[in-house]
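Researcher: We plan to redesign the surface later, but first we want a full-length starting point. Tokens attached.
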């Protein structure tokens, strides 16, 4: 398959480029006449490509800011596209009554347009309110930063951001908020940088902490697990699930979901073999990462990983967090 031109989106989106687009299309092909759920619509990059190749798309997103993109696609592909407001953890319920679903695609994580909007509070590169809520409801990042005790905050940064210096960062945050509440992104970024320093050429010292806070605010790991099992319930035999993740914690969950044996202890050939449960997924593709050409076009793709699998005839499992390597925050 040749490289397709990147889909255009309305100018209000800012620069948003869907990652591993050709690889996603290849995993779900052939597309003509198929009904596909795009569980993380965003600016509609995947949906547009799927529609252009003849698929019918049901798009889901909890972020109200995506509505202009959904309306544009609805006008461009009448009768072929529909949008449902909600979370992808409910994708089976939100897709009910729309006929057989052939595939599901999930692009996990924060989108470029969310990072580029300072007032959303996702980025430490732009000053804005310390928010990070994708759906504008519930606790914000500022709420967590200003209320969690030192140990709880350190545990959160370590578990969800893999931040090895989490305890020192938490101590500096708590000391700073005793003077005045921390309310902006750059204010928090400066505190983190002051706490652990910054070496030339390294990633910004706030990267992992901002990731951890965003994941906590939006319950992203819970959403991911629930969305994966929702797709398993929704898809019939032969249906395809494609998932793009952006860091090792997410990818570990996806990998173990597709193939639970990967996360379990190895069986000794000297002992009686334990009978394994029926496989719910087959044709599990090897992890795919972006190539050099894509990285040159879109540096934000550098950490993305695509995994996909095909549904078997076995009944769907009940939703379970066991065995998926879910990061846990100690003391919660």
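Model: Full-length starting sequence:
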């Amino acid at each position: 398959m040749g490289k397709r031109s990147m889909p255009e989106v309305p100018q209000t989106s800012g620069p948003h480029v869907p990652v591993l687009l050709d690889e996603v299309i290849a995993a779900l092909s052939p597309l003509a006449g198929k009904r596909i759920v795009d569980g993380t619509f965003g600016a509609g990059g995947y949906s547009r490509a799927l529609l252009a190749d003849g698929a019918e798309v049901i798009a889901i997103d909890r972020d109200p800011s995506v509505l202009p993109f959904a309306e544009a696609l609805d006008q461009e592909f009448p009768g072929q596209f529909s949008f449902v407001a909600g979370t992808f953890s409910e994708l089976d319920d939100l897709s009910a009554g729309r006929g057989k679903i052939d595939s599901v695609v999930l692009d996990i994580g924060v989108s470029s347009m969310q990072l580029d909007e300072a007032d959303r509070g996702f980025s430490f590169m732009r000053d804005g309110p310390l928010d990070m809520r994708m759906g504008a409801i519930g606790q914000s990042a500022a709420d967590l930063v200003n209320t969690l005790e030192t140990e709880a905050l350190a545990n959160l940064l370590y578990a969800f951001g893999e931040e090895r210096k989490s305890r020192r960062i938490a101590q500096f945050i708590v000391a700073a908020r005793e003077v005045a509440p921390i309310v902006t992104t750059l204010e928090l970024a400066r505190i983190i940088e002051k706490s652990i320093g910054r070496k030339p050429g390294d990633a910004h010292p706030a990267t992992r902490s901002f990731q951890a806070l965003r994941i906590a605010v939006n319950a992203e790991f819970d959403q991911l697990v629930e969305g994966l099992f929702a797709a398993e319930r929704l898809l019939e035999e032969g249906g395809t699930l494609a998932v793009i993740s952006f860091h090792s914690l997410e990818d570990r969950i996806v990998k173990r979901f597709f193939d639970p044996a990967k996360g379990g202890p190895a069986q000794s050939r000297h002992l009686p073999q334990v009978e394994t449960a029926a496989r719910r997924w087959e044709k599990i593709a090897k992890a795919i990462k972006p190539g050099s050409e894509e990285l040159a076009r879109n540096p934000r793709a550098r950490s993305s990983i695509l995994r996909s699998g095909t549904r078997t005839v076995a009944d769907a499992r009940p939703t379970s967090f066991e065995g998926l390597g879910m990061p846990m925050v100690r003391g919660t």
